[in-house]
Amino acid sequence: MEHLLYHFCPDTLNLYGDRGNIICLKKRCEWRGISLHIEEIKNPDDARKTGSDLFMIGGGSDREQSIVTSRLAPLVKEIRAWIEDGVSALTICGGYQFLGDYYEMKNGEKLKGMGILPFYTKAGEDRLMTNLLVESKQFGKVVGFENHGGKTYHHFETIGKVINGYGNNEESGEEGLHYHHLIGTYLHGPILPKNPKIADYLIEKAFERKTGRKLEPLDDEMENKETRPFGRDFCTLNGKNI
Ligand code: GLN
Q1: Binding residue per annotation — 127?
Q2: Which of 88, 156, 183, 198 could join 202 in a cystine, given CB atoms 3.0 to 4.6 angstroms apart?
Q3: What InterPro entries does the record tag this protein with (predicted)?
């Protein structure tokens, strides 16, 4: 049975190789004999009302985010309904911020968000740029890097606690957002090849929802290889291995 993934606006939102997440999802499906069909949604008419089994929205600059917000505005109701219905979704940085009510820029000007979930993002004085390490109850150690000006504030569940880096904002010590089967995150990297548990969580929820069956595990020895103290290729901060 074919599964369908919508990749929203890859022509506009694709910072730091976020597209690599799609390759990772496709490969991990293939290795289990699951066929994953990918459709790029650049305009509202590209999407079927019935939606997809998974979707991804990558990161982008403030300007690109606001272009996409107006372009996809006609799909707000549908995207909200898909999330509520348990569709698996990964939204990264600009794509994560874009689900909220607004993004307040440094000069105080507010860019409208999609208003799909009640939260907001406000740009701070400095960009939050570093390697990000998160301890997650559900996913264990989660690694990647972050590069954003916006700080996000919400009351939803998060992915986990920030051990190194900033995450949602400097105050809360929490990273990302987890609601139904939607993961919003500041982790680029791309996130999924480095964090196979999150990749499989998204695939599993889509697969179970469609077939009622459990997902077969894969051998992740290579993905989980600890090359540095924090595992995988989590790298250096101020010249030191961390
Ligand atoms: N425009 C956003 C910010 O700088 C998102 C950047 C990104 O997607 N990396 O906060």
Answers
A1: yes
A2: 88
A3: Class_I_gatase-like, CobQ_GATase1, GATase_3, Lipid_II_synth_GatD
For the CA of 95, the nearest atom of ligand 1:
8
Cα–Cα distances (Å) from 137 to 33, 64, 119, 140, 219, in that order, read: 29, 33, 23, 6, 21
Q: What is the DSSP letter of 16?
A: G
Active site residues: 93, 188
Report which protein residue has its CA nearest ligand 1's atom 5.
Answer: 94
Phi, psi of 85 (to 5 degrees): -85, 0
> Is residue 12 lining ligand 1, measured as CB closer than 6 Å?
no
Which is nearest to 80 in space by CA: 71, 89, 93?
89
Looking only at the bridges linking them, the beta strands covering 3-8 and 36-41 are parallel
Residue-wise pLDDT for 35-85, tens only, equals 999 999 999 999 998 899 999 999 998 889 889 999 999 999 999 999 999
The pTM of the full predicted model, rounded to 2 decimals, is: 0.93
- Residue 225, exposed/middle/buried by CB under 10 A (0-12, 13-18, 19+)? exposed
